[in-house]
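Late entry, evening session. Most of the bench is empty. Finally got around to the prediction I had been postponing all week. Sequence below, unchanged from the version circulated by S.P.
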Amino acid sequence: MKNGDPSLGEFHLRPHQKEAVAAVVRGLSDVAGGDVRGTVVMATGTGKTITAAVAAHRLVPRGRCGVLVPTLDLLAQTAEAWRRAGHRGRMIAVCSLGDDPLLEALGVRCTTDPGLLARWVAGAGSVVVLATYASLVPQSARQDGAGNGEEGVGGPQESARARRGVLERAVRGEGFTGPSLPAFDLLVVDEAHRTSGDLGKSWAAALDQGRVPAVRRLFMTATPRLWETPPVSGGEGRLVASMDDQRLYGPVLFELELMEAVERGLLARWEIDVLEITDPQAPAPEAGAEAQLDRWGVAAGVELVSRLMRELGLVPCLPRSKRFTLTQAAAGPVPDLVGRDFTADAPGEKLVGDITYIASGEGWLYLATVIDCCTKEVIGYAMDDHCQTPSRSSTTTSAAGRVRGRC
């Protein structure tokens, strides 16, 4: 069975994918008002790509679809998934991978020329245009290292034309004669959280109907990002795209978060391993974490652990070592009253004491103990937030009381 549609490829949608497709079709079918938008949130590994492909096939089976992805590898994977989902018509990739064997086998034509792109799309029949976010960035900016789109291109004096990438130039008909790129019937924005943040960056063009026109926009993500405009003193703050802004991203049409995906058996259970180091003499946090991971059989060097801690915003919680020392001149010679012999023939005959400190959530806890050398039993102890004489005296007093009680 082919999911009830003879034109779809040989695969079966899982129940959650059917729910998502139905929600997208419901949410984006009515385009009377134009520029209809919606967001789908699905955990990584639950099939966002195939869900979008099937939804597009049902919404606009003979229309023009645009698909934006972050990387060239994902572009090739998406082309393969959309072919399996039944998209048999023309497929164009806005990239320079013309000699890629997978794209060639899938019948995908590649170009970075805006005029050629517009001509190819203008033909009759359905068409899918696959592009990376780099196609929203002008070639000059990519050569200057700004191809990630995280910063707006140029300053206020720079012409708008200098900020346009291949897609936008094709839409505007810049630099060529003939028909320009028509509006997409559906624009799928994968990894859509990458378009959020500063509205002045190049990748935010995917949100702008005036720059990349589309009748419908479908935003797909596993990690929606919410932003607030930072307060500024004097003048206007920078415009920010937050994924809870329905004017930009539309309503959430379907949501399947990570924990729900785990509970439904779609993803394997996972665990968070927390390293707790209580030894004040322990090595540096990175080295300790590396050693613990090595004991667990996880290959990770100091550099990887340090980088992941920085990316995740983790900071070491190793307590600072606290040492108390007295110079011999101040304390005088300390006599060895037991001759290093910690044995005794009878209880209460020989007692020794010790003081240690323990890290707690409220600071250091100091523990003083008295131990019977015969029974090895702690016969007296006291705890306090300091290690001054009163706590040691109370320890001795409680130990003496227990000894007297035995006699």
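Two things to note before I forget:
DSSP finds 13 helices and 13 strands in the chain.
The first strand starts at residue 36 and ends at 42.
Will write this up properly tomorrow.
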